[in-house]
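Hi R.,

Here's the chain you asked about this morning:
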Amino acid sequence: MAVQSVEAPADVRGQALPGYAVAAIREEGRWRCTRLAAESLVDLDAAITELRELRVQGAVVGLLDVDDEFFVIVRPVPGGISLMLSDAVAALDYDVAADVLDLLRVELPPDDDALDDPWPEGDLAILADFGLPADELEMLAGELELYPDEQLATIGRRCGFADALAEVVDAR
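And here is the predicted structure, written out as tokens:
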């Protein structure tokens, strides 16, 4: 089954989704966060474009908490983009998740039973250079009792940008 034809549920299609989109920026050894356009929650290309337009000297990491259902980490890297999706099954209901799988060239399994349990997909080592190893990110994504904002707050604590992230998220 190709994910290219997957759309968001009719009740959220074309609307802003709950959640947040934030860029965590590391320059000169310090983190700061800034809000991304709400469009980033429904359009991966918009998030990627906005992150690339920041034109900073250090690292940029996009954090998307989509509809309190899953999160996406987007990181521009030389020659492309690195992506991590906390729940590949979300591609059945959300365009932005389907777009992540498309860019990763990952197709969902045709067996409906395989879609019963969520699993992370993408570059699990996306934040390893900031102190969050791939195995820890995978375990965190698998913590189903946590909401995506709680998972992203934990990621912020492990990488060192929790306070900057909380400032932006709490200001909304």
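One quick note: The two ends are 38 Å apart (CA to CA).

Cheers,
M.
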